[in-house]
Every structure is written in structure tokens, then in C-alpha cells.
Amino acid sequence: MRRTPIQIRKEILTLLQQNKEVSLRKLESKVNTNFETIKRQIKDLESLGFIIIKKYNAHPRNKKPYQTCKITQEGLKWIRKEK
């Protein structure tokens, strides 16, 4: 069954609520969707003020650039209201 964007956003925010900061690649595997969908939903959540995206120049292990995201107070309020 195909999930709606709202369902995916809820899954992302729930995961971020449980963890302080999560990489986009980890979100991809935990939410079980493709990377493009994660990027699109993360951008939407950031524009709503529900998350903050951090960009890093080099990962400690492979030295490649990567991004993580963290839930904001607004995101926490929204996810609590939706439950």
C-alpha cells in the first residue's frame, strides 16, 4: 500500500522525536522509502519550521559531505497533536 506524504512526514518526525539528530541516509532506511522522497519531505518539513537541516563537509568515516536533521519545538508540538 502506498503511503501519503503526511504519513511519511509523521514517520520522519516520530523518528526524529526519538533521536537527537539523524542523517538523511538513515532516515531513508528507517522510513523505508527512497532518498529523493526523503529529500523532498525534509525540505517541506524545514519550510514548515518542523525541522532543522544541518550540512557537514566531511563524514568522519568516509570524508564525504552529508546532511542530518533535527526536530524543532514546532515539530514536536505538531507530532504530539497528531497522535
Structural class: alpha+beta
Radius of gyration (CA) equals 13 Å
Counting DSSP H or I runs of 4 or more residues, the number of helices is 4
Strand order of the largest sheet: 1-3-2
Helix residue percentage: 40-55%
Mean pLDDT metric: 92
Beta content: 15-25%
What's the helix-strand series? Answer: HEHHEEH
Shape assignment: globular
Structure explained in plain terms:
- The two termini are 21 Å apart.
- The protein has 83 residues and is an alpha+beta fold.
- The longest helix has 14 residues.
- The radius of gyration is 13 Å and the shape is globular.
- Helix 1 packs across helix 4 and helix 2 packs across helix 3.
Salient structural properties:
3-stranded antiparallel beta sheet; 4 helices; 54% helix; 17% strand; globular
Fold blueprint:
Blueprint: H1 5-18, E1 22-23, H2 24-31, H3 35-47, E2 51-56, E3 66-71, H4 73-82
Antiparallel strand pairs: 1-3, 2-3
Helix pairs in contact: 1-4, 2-3
Give a nutshell description of this structure:
The protein is an alpha+beta fold and about 80 residues long.
